[in-house]
Write the structure tokens for this entry.
Amino acid sequence: MNDLSLKTWSRRLYKKYAERLKREIDEGDLARSAIVFSPHPDDETLGCGGTIIRKKRAGADIKVVYMTDGRHSHSRFIADNKLKVMRESEAIAACHELGLESANITFLDYEDGKLRKNMDSASDQVERILKEYEPDDIFIPYYKEAPADHSVTNRIVINAIRKSGQKVIIYEYPIWFWQHWPWMTGPERRFLTVPRNILLSFISGIRLVMNFRCSVYIGDIIGVKRAALEKHRSQMIKLIGNSDWPILSEVSDGEFLQCFFQEHEIFYRHTIE
């Protein structure tokens, strides 16, 4: 069995077991109000763009809160302040595509990559937002996300929920969680010969099956989600025509983006007692 067929077989196996355990969110749950906390502009669309669309169509009140400004994603090519303005504009355009109005979008404007240094102030801001809007549901990055801004966003929001005393349902969405075999080819091409990577893949697979038991069907609105993601132009196209300008479709030869255009968005659903 070659690496490609083994990868395909493994994906199907994980999906098979995940399908047996997962619960699809019903129309009643879709109509519940929610706040989506996004570490950077584009994470909201990647992780739960389809769910935002479905919830809006079900009549839910949805807010999106951007934790950082994304100014360093292409700092080798463009001035930080210019990229900050660009990414804010892109985020607004993407949210409009998802069905949100500008009044439903909040930018906390913490510097990209430095959210950890601002945890206390960010937690206070998030707590104020929770008390103002009193949402039924909260969407945050999965707690095992590798990038610092992602895991810190999770911790900030969880802490703010505890301080606010509010009873909400939490949905954790995966972004860079997908960065493991068989969903993506690792930097080491001889992946299956590396014991550490095999172990990490196995652990991630177990988490996929055991944690992500909640899903939202987006098969009929994938085109809308894709159109929203395209609004994040700095992440999707080479704006200055430089072949070195990194874009999402180049991550693992396009395998990364494929993870977000499956028929279901998946979530780790839980509450804080």
